[in-house]
Design goal:
The protein is an alpha/beta fold and 187 residues long. The chain has a single domain, classed as Rossmann fold. The protein is built from eight helices and seven strands; from the N terminus they run ββααβαβαβαβααβα. α2 crosses α4, α4 packs across α5 and α5 packs parallel to α7. It is globular. 24% of the residues are buried.
């Protein structure tokens, strides 16, 4: 049996993984990869990312000693990482800040995203608002009905929320619409 490396090579783990996207997006994906490789070790980029994660996202979030849960399991001390205390109420901002910052460094002015429950859309809207980027979020209308508060938050943060009315009108279809938009409006 072949040993897998700790880190993937070319996006693959052994025979698994890779890129499965429309051919029209390959140039954009290659540009993204090249930009990431160029900037990932850049000290200025890291400092700016660290600044936004600390000052805007509220990182690091605390560890909480769960005394009652520890008693209940009789043994291990249990700690909870309180990502719910990050700005926006979830861990999603950790990822979207880095993505939006990379997009800005690449000269992009618009970020698209898809969301189901709305947390990823809110985090994308937050990151874009902080960095002066345009945010467009695709969300199924069934999810929009269930998550009105998150739709309000996205719009309050300046994002344009596109209601997706095709298929089951949920996350799966929002993903498809976001990809259609990307292919149609590729930069």
């Amino acid at each position: 049996m072949k040993k897998l490396s700790k880190y993937p090579v070319d996006g693959k783990y052994g025979k698994f993984g890779g890129r499965f996207i429309p051919e029209v997006l390959m140039a954009a994906i290659n540009e993204l990869e090249k930009s990431y490789e160029k900037i990932k070790n850049d000290t200025r980029f890291k400092k700016e990312l660290e600044y936004y994660l600390s000052e805007y996202a509220g990182r690091p979030t605390p560890l909480y000693y769960a005394k009652n849960l520890t008693k209940m399991v009789e043994g291990a001390k249990i700690y909870l990482k309180r990502e719910d205390l990050a700005h926006g109420g979830a861990h999603k901002i950790n990822n979207t800040i880095g993505q939006a910052l990379l997009a800005k460094q690449m000269g992009k002015t618009r970020v698209i995203a898809e969301t189901g429950a709305g947390q990823h859309g809110v985090a994308t809207a937050m990151a874009c608002a902080a960095l002066g980027l345009k945010a467009e979020v695709f969300m199924g209308i069934e999810d929009m009905k269930r998550q009105k508060l998150n739709v309000f938050r996205m719009e309050l943060l300046g994002a344009k929320v596109h209601p997706v009315k095709s298929g089951s009108r949920t996350l799966k279809d929002a993903i498809n619409e976001a990809l259609r938009d990307w292919v149609t409006n590729i930069q």
